[in-house]
Every structure is written in structure tokens, then in C-alpha cells.
Amino acid sequence: MGEKRFMKGNEAIAEAAVRGGCRFFAGYPITPQNEIPEYLSWRLPEVGGVYVQGESEVASVNMVYGAAAMGTRSMTSSSGPGISLKAEGISYLAAAMLPALIVNISRGGPGLGSIQPAQSDYLQATKALGHGGFHCMVFAPNSAQEAVDIVYDAWEYAERDRNPVLVLMDGCLGNIMEEVELPPMKERTDADIPEWSLSRRNGRDYQGNITPIYTEPILEGINMMAGEMYKQWEEDDVKVEEFMTEDAEYIVVAYGIASRVSKEAVLTLREKGVKIGLIRPITLFPFPKASLRDLDYSRVKGIIDVEMTIPAQMREDIELQVMGRCPVYEYGRSGGCLLDDDGVLEAIEEIIAGGNDE
Amino acid sequence: MKTSFVFSGAGGQGIMSAGITLAQAAIDMGKHATYLPEYGPEQRGGSAKCTVVVSDDPIVSPLPRQCDNLIVMNAQAYEKFFEDLKPGGVLLTNLNRVAEANDRDDVRLLPVPVDDIALELGNPKTANIILLGVLTGATGIVSREIFVQSLTEKFGKKPEVLDMNIRALDKGIEIGKQYKA
Fold it and tell me: Do residues A109 and A120 touch, judged by C-beta distance below 8 A?
């Protein structure tokens, strides 16, 4: 069924979005995600969709707000600094309970940072994509193929929850070309447009109401509903890969590009007889708490958080589950300097040898 | 079996296109491949580098610290990357722009006057195809047939361009075979 292509991660995301039903994109250029808008600029018109290069990030995210309100599967993409500019709009999307896909192909930071890849936006993605205390589901694929699979179904989650979804990848994964198998185009009709959208009257004599503004008791109710939804995600939607963890004395925790370099290190160390495994969060929010909470800490001697950012940002989420039952270590590269196989391997060996302070 | 390649030089020397062509050819042969480009903010003339990993098995990490084959198209790239080659690896240099490459005595040096050969063939743009030919001849990483097939797909509508590229490839293979391990 599938169609195989050798594609850049960014282009694979764009094509998967189209096949997943995306018919509106608005964005503003920024490296290293430019292939997404470039691709959609010709691809969306082919399927009757609309592509807009906005005059700014703020304008773009608000166009997504408008299109989403009409029930159109909509997305925007950017990289760190641009996501910061979109923060207000993403918060408004969450407030108005609108589904949308936001893609962050992250780079070095803070500030303008570096145009080179980095995983420096974990905290922004998982804790506060904007003001006001809301969350999005955050997916962190580690290959072009996994990005395709996740983006293809992103609107199923977004529409189910009436909430934006974030896909977080670093510039490395965005720019790597790999083989991908593409799923078929989702055939959608007007009947698939959500009930609440402004494009459906449903017998009403008014066009419905989408608003990010609520008065006190209603806003509290909206907050409570959101809180329940986040709890439900933890029950239903956690995605995690556990690799060689059954007998592991050391566990590496890594997501995205860092997980691939780490897995290579795990495989090499296993050949040397080291009992080591990998836990890879695929959803960063909801975080795979149980995978870390339920480890046998009479056996596990240490957890090693590997991220392409300094200092590590996932560490607190890990420590909340480890609860002091074993040391948590970290290794990373940052600022656009990439992790590499030997570097991660040597760092882990050094940590195991006890040469690294907690 | 996993083999890695780093192509490096200046923007405009066909570095990225050489990397993509190699990766695509490997995939056409039923192997797995990843291609990772790295470049600065310049549109032209900045440094260009790409890493290609080819493997019989699915590729776990696309980020080796050191590569098996380093291709340097100019002196800046040589200075910047010569340490990124594994001991015993292949160092393919553009002799026209990298006059001396004597910092490593633990690698196989393949100095080829790529620019001169490309000019003799009639188009300096074929330099990167000559390089791929040398790699093919020296390492056998992919077959001539596969490259010809992908060149035909790319330039099929321009017979004279296709012909020149195939001649560039064959010239490269001929040189590469002299270096075959």
C-alpha cells in the first residue's frame, strides 16, 4: 500500500500533513524548518488547500486560528524563536478550544540562538507553550518515518481534544533525508468537518460561537476540563519505546535525535557486556512517567539523561519519577554543536566508571 | 556493514548533490542510507558539508564522529575536517585546490585533480560526478549501473548533459580503480 520515498524530514512532515487532511498552512520563514513551508507552498494548492506566507509569525498563527475555527485542518511550523512569537496565538488556540498542528524544528538558543540543530525547547514545549497554564500533546519523533506516522494522525488527537498538538523535532531530523513509506491520502468530506465549527450551522439561526474570552466561573470550568483532559492523556496516550531495559543496570533516557545516537551507544555497550538500556519518550507530554517510576531500583544503578542541549531540560521530569532511588546523570552538546556516536559512548562509559559527579 | 562518507567544500561545488546522489544510489541498490546536510547562512560560497551513512541494516544513528571516507573539495574543508576521518579511512582530495594533504599518515590518500579533469571533459560542474566515480571505482560502494540509471533519470531529457555526466563518471571510475584496495 505504502509509497516509498527518500525524503527530508521536513518534506516528509509536509507531505504527511497533506495526506492527514491538512488544507491550510500559514507560516513565516526560519531555518531549519524552511522546507516545510516551501513544500506546502506548491503542494497544498494541488489538493485544493491554501498556503499563506504571513507577514509575521503572529499573523500566521492567527490565520491558523481563523482557519481552524472554520473546521479546516490547519497547521503552522517554525523554529524556536518563531515559536516564541507564536506563543500568544497558541495560547489563544487552546483557550478557544481549536485543533491545530504546530511544528517546531528546533535550533540552538536562547534568543536568536543558532541556525544549527539543538533540542533546546523541551521546557517551552512541555511546560508553557504560551501564557495561562495550558498544555498541548507534544510528540517527539526520532526519524522521518515516525514523523510521518505522527503528523498523519495529529488532527485525530487535535480534533478529539479540541486542542492544538505540537510536534517537536530538532533541525537535524528536519534536514536528514531518509527513506519513508507514505500512507494514503485521508479522504474527507464535509461530513467530517467538526460539529462545532463556524462553517456548520446545524440548524442554528446563528453561526456558532468560537471565543477565547470567558467570564469568571466559565473560565474556571474551562480550566477544570483541561485539567481532566491532561489526566486522561496520561491514561490513554503515552507513547514510549523501552529498549533492552529488562535487565539493565543503567538506563539512558533520550528523545528525538539524541535517542538515535544513544541507542547506537547502548548497542555498542551491550556488545561489551554492559547491562544498559534506553527509555525513549515519544510523547514528551504526557511524559512516560510509569516507565521510569516502575523500574526495579534494586537493580538500576543510574539514569543517564542524554539531550542535545545544555543543561539538560528533561532531567526534572525524570527525577520526579526516580525519586532519589538512584543517581541521575546528564550528558549533552548544545548551541548547534551536534551529539555524535563516540561522544555519547565515551560520556556514558565515563559516567559508569564513576568519573562523573551526579 | 555500515559505511560513512563526508563530502565537504564550498557552496556551489556540488557537495550536497553528490551526497544525495550517493545516498539515493545506495537505496536503489536495496541498502539503507541517511543524508545530513550542514551549511551556514550564506547562499553561495560558504562552507558546505554533508554526511552520508550507507548500511545493509536500518541506520540507528546518522551522526558518526569520524567517517570512513572523507571527500574534500577545497583547502578550507581539508583544514576543517581532516581529523574527522577514521584511521585507515579513505581521504579523497581535489588536488587542484588541496595542494598538500600530509597531516595524516594513517589513511589512504587519493589525490585527484578533479577540476582539471572536469575542464578537460568540457564542464567544471561535472567535478562532483567525477568524485562519485572515483569513490565507486575505489570502494565499490555502489555500482556503475545504478549511477547511470540515476543520472539518466535526472538528465534523460538533455542527452548531451547526460552524456557528459556519464563520461565524467567513467573517468572517475577509471581513476578510482587504480586505487582499489
Answer: yes
The interface predicted TM-score of the complex, written ipTM, equals 0.92
Say how far apart CA B26 and CA B69 lie, in whole Å.
15
Contacts with A171 from chain B: Cβ below 8 Å: none
Q: Which domains does chain A have, with CATH numbers?
A: 3-236 (3.40.50.970), 241-352 (3.40.50.920)
The reply to whether the predicted model has a pTM over 0.90 is yes
Give the residue numbers spanning the domain of B35. 2-178
Domain total of chain B = 1
Determine phi and psi for A289, rounding to 5 degrees. -60, -45
- Among A309, A298, A299, A303, smallest CA distance to A321 is for A303
Q: Tens place of pLDDT for every residue, chain B, 181 residues? A: 899 999 999 988 999 999 999 999 999 999 999 999 987 776 667 889 999 999 999 999 999 999 999 999 999 999 999 999 999 999 999 999 998 888 999 999 999 999 999 999 999 999 999 999 999 999 888 899 999 998 898 888 999 999 999 999 999 999 999 987 6
Q: Between A115, A116, A260, which is nearest B61 by CB?
A: A260
- B83: domain CATH number is 3.40.920.10
User: Sign of torsion, CA B110 B115 B120 B126?
Assistant: positive
Residue B36 has its nearest CB partner, among A6, A172, A263, at: A172
